[in-house]
Amino acid sequence: MKTIRILIAAVLTSVTATASTVIFTDVHNQSFTVQIEGKTYNSRHGEVSVPYVTPGRHSVQIITYTHSRGRAPIETITRSTIHIPAHSVVYAQVHRNNSVSVARVEQVRTSTRVAQSRPAPQPTVRTTSRPVVSCADMSDVEFQRLSRQLAIARFDSERFDIAMHAIRFNHLTSYQVYMIASAFSFEQYRIQIAENAYLKTVDPYNYDIVYDALTFSSSRRQLSQYIAGTHSPYHYYDSGTYYSYRTR
Q1: Quick check: 121 pLDDT over 70?
Q2: Do residues 60 and 162 share a domain?
Q3: Which whole number is the average pLDDT over 228-234?
Q4: Same structural domain for residues 168 and 200?
């Protein structure tokens, strides 16, 4: 039984390590529902982010509703097939006929690979009046358990409580923070996660990946300003470009 549990944990860890995020955007900013891997996601303002998608070919079902006064809404269902590469952020567009096409693919850098290629800056010592909490690095198995809890939660408010508990008692990699933030539907929760997790990351020099979980440029600027206020090395976003600075 112990061997089976170890094998299952190894498989789950492998899936998490190669999982990708797919961001569906309607070209006309219309609301829609997407079904992929047996799960259903509802768009907000014509966009929805689907985290933890396993690599490979996937059947995608797009559902839209046409509303007419005095009539029941007309449901339109369209099925498409897209290929999801491993460890990537895939930007997919939903067209007028509900067909889906991949507009852009961004390969996500793993924290291990980047950490080997870039020296870690010396951390800044900060004083705080908060009580000291004993923290440990979150393992792949623990992160997989957290990912399942976030996926099961029905509302972003519930996901936020789960995520904040994990952030309080664990040290995280920048990629783990990115995946946690991507699990939320609403931007307000994503930015709060990104801000609260920054000082708990073991590789803040890789934190530019977390910006990819934020939809709006205003949110990225807000995160940059927050990081600047921590007097730590930070990444600044402006007009589609990332800049890396160390504050004094």
Answers
A1: no
A2: no
A3: 60
A4: yes
